[in-house]
């Protein structure tokens, strides 16, 4: 859905580029993706947030009018409030986020924080994690950044973040030098996807935001995730081959 959305929105924005500054045109494009967001959000709110975020970034790049996006931000907050209210477990996650020690379901968050804290500056050493041996649930998936912190420490985790920053920066450079608007929007969409997913994953692991299932791109376990991320990389590389 994310890859398809990037291509679809790039085409729609390119087709309506002359009228993209009008509220009517922007709302029309956003309404086209809301059914996808709604269907995905019914069972996976975090992925719906990513899809919505990609849409907002692409339209903002094409028409950076701040007044419109304040309205869209308020609309997005209302949209999220509805989805939070639909399922009681989502409201419970907010309570767990505020005080993980008071809830049994705060176990994963606490164990992840223990892993980060025990890594110190330089970590226990590659492969020497204790927390991944049954203490941190989903250590190979959503919580893998906490294991990186434990094994490689602050410096190792910082190095991983620098690699992601370089990748996002290269997406930005390719987007700004693309031969046409369609290519620029494809690179921007991939950049937005990568940026949102990295920020959300690390924010969850560090308990900066409530716990939600977001993988760390290229690092978390999962063949399908890697396959579609590589498809995005291929699209961006295709755009880079036609730079100005």
Q: Quick one: biggest sheet?
A: none
Q: Give start-end ranges of low-pLDDT stretches.
A: none
Mean pLDDT: 83
> How many E strands?
0
3D shape: globular
How many helices does DSSP assign?
A: 9
Q: Compute the gyration radius: what is it?
A: 19 Å
Helix content: over 70%
What is the terminal-to-terminal distance?
Answer: 30 Å
Class based on secondary structure composition and strand pairing: mainly alpha
Note the run of SSEs as H and E: HHHHHHHHH
In percent, how much strand structure appears in the residues?
A: under 5%
Total domains, how many?
Answer: 2
Protein model, in words:
The chain has 244 residues and is mainly α. The chain has two domains: 1-86, no CATH class; 98-244, no CATH class. Helices cover 70% and strands 0% of the residues. The protein has helices at residues 2-15, 23-41, 45-62, 66-86, 88-98, 107-119, 144-176, 181-205, 223-240. Helix 1 runs antiparallel to helix 8, helix 4 (66-86) packs across helix 5 and helix 6 (107-119) crosses helix 7 (144-176). The model has no long low-confidence stretch (mean pLDDT 83).
SSE arrangement:
Blueprint lengths: L1 H14 L7 H19 L3 H18 L3 H21 L1 H11 L8 H13 L24 H33 L4 H25 L17 H18 L4
Helix pairs in contact: 1-3, 1-8, 2-3, 3-4, 3-8, 4-5, 6-7, 7-8, 8-9
